[in-house]
UniProtKB/TrEMBL annotation:
Protein name: TetR/AcrR family transcriptional regulator
Start and end residues of each HTH tetR-type domain: 8-68
Keyword vocabulary terms for this entry: DNA-binding, Transcription, Transcription regulation
One Pfam family cited in the UniProt record for this chain: TetR_N
Lineage, highest ranks first: Bacteria, Bacillati, Actinomycetota, Actinomycetes, Propionibacteriales
DNA-binding region: 31-50
Transmembrane segments: none
């Protein structure tokens, strides 16, 4: 990499690289020296933007929360009809976890679950999980379920997402592909969104 490129690295570049490393190798993969090498720079560039590794991890966690929770909810909320909104959300998240095991939306989630007690990860993971569950609960409540049943259904949907992500990550050959995947996701969504009287 040319010197000019190294000088133009930003905190955003480091944060993106850290999030990619986290998705591919877990929290342990967020290490300054290997990241510097992958970015074609030196550790000095890192210390220009961050005080230490924990600051980089915190920035990556914040980016993950914004990208995979805040922006997803904002995008889905643009759909006026609640039933369509819920189906859109479920299709988006179930589809996003399939593909490259180190790059899917579920990869960061699974990496964080594996280090859920880490002092930086625990509060972020708890906040994101509660926010997602609250959003799912609100959608199911808008569909007409009582608050308690809406919370139960939201929890079921979130557990299905985590299980689907784990399956796609650890045994991708078991997850349907192509049209079969689309049909599989349709059945998941249908099962999760049925509102009985």
């Amino acid at each position: 990499m040319a010197i000019g490129k190294r000088e133009s690295l930003t905190a955003n570049d480091w944060t993106s690289a850290a999030l990619d490393a986290l998705a591919r190798g877990g929290l342990g993969a967020v290490a300054v020296e290997p990241l510097a090498k992958s970015l074609g720079t030196t550790k000095g560039s890192f210390y220009w933007h961050f005080t230490d590794r924990n600051a980089l991890i915190a920035a990556a966690l914040e980016r993950w929360e914004q990208r995979d929770t805040d922006r997803v909810i904002a995008a889905v909320d643009r759909t006026p009809d609640v039933a369509t909104r819920l189906r859109k959300l479920l299709r988006l998240v179930f589809t996003a976890v399939v593909g490259d095991p180190g790059a899917g939306a579920g990869s960061v989630e699974l990496a964080l679950q594996a280090t859920a007690t880490h002092p930086l990860v625990a509060p972020t993971l708890a906040r994101v999980t509660e926010r997602r569950l609250a959003y799912l609960t609100s959608l199911f409540a808008e569909l007409g379920l009582s608050q308690a049943r809406a919370r139960d259904r939201g929890l079921l949907a979130y557990a299905a997402f985590l299980g689907h992500a784990q399956l796609a990550h650890s045994t991708p050959d078991l997850v349907p592909a192509g049209r079969a995947l689309s049909s599989h996701i349709d059945r998941l969504i249908e099962t999760l969104t049925v509102v009985e009287d």
